[in-house]
Amino acid sequence: MTDTEVIPEPMLQDVRRQPHVLRDLAGRVGEIAEFHAEHLAGGTGRTVAFGSGDGWFAARSATTGTLLAASGLEIAGDAGPEMGPGDGGIAISMSGNVDRTVEAAERLLARGARVTALTNGGGGRLGALGLPCFALHLSDIAPFLCGTSSFLTTRTVLDAFAALARGDEPARIARVIEATADTIQAILPRAEVLATEIAADRATAPAIRFLSCGTRGMAIADYGAAKLVELCATPSWTDDVEEFAHRQYWTMQRGELMTMLPTTPVVAEIASESAKALKAMDVKSLWVAPDDLPTHEAAWSLTYKDNGCHRESVAAVPLQLLAYHVSLQTGFDPNRRLHLKQDEVRFNTSRQLTRRSLLGTGQ
What we know:
Layout: H1 10-16, H2 18-26, H3 29-39, E1 47-51, H4 54-61, E2 68-71, H5 72-76, E3 88-92, H6 99-111, E4 114-119, H7 124-128, E5 133-135, H8 149-165, H9 170-201, E6 208-212, H10 214-231, E7 236-240, E8 257-260, H11 265-278, E9 284-290, E10 300-304, H12 311-329, H13 338-341, H14 344-354
Parallel strand pairs: 1-2, 1-3, 3-4, 4-5, 6-7, 6-8, 8-9, 9-10
């Protein structure tokens, strides 16, 4: 892309290109395996992936018995995992400039832990620490986009690291990534139609909630809510499918939208019962799940055949599209997000909170 070329609807194009970027990543599994063997394998302790925002969601969505997850603040400023020599840390930041992630990496280095970075380019301040960096090398479609393909590729690399740690062969890992790309390609047309329809129907919804269960499921729910926060002014909340009934429900308003992200048959049964009960509150539900889970009571459904794919990656895509179309329907511009930058006090305060090094740069 040239400096003068303008891509129409760049966020939408970023969402649509995700099958392509995942297939490209499948072709780099050998490179991922080499990086893992050189910088992550062989330790005697834990490997913890950490970051802030999308990086934290990605780490939690990929956590397994071989890969733990933490926020940057949990490592930088809280008791967190007491890591030291033998332990490994993976600092996640596309720019490499998020304050808490950089501070966490510095703290782990001071403890003698092995620290690597997962970035999109040179690594910014993380790269300046001399960390081994695995770079995604995603091309920029437009500036200041809400993270979509960067999130999916980040969590895919982390899933690959976890799979390598438990002994999976690179060829098998590549097949899983390709299967994920195929599944996302298959659901994209239906997901776009549903997101447009739901946004029009629930444009005046007082809030949108995302319910799931477990560390990985809740990470995707949190990611979905975060996309709405980045794109428009519709309040968004997340909760555990069961615990919602014991806490958030009591302040829920009539006419909200509920997004159900069930992870197992038991969770699906509770989610379906909840969707049915909430109809009395004029709450409509969106169901996003593989088609091997029990039937449901949702108003809208996006199910898919699990062909060995990463379910968390597949579930993230309709949430991206939902946020995009709710933003458009409620009068915002999801492609430029000018409502954030034009509020100069809010924007500068955000840099004070998370990226002090970028103050005054407009980034």
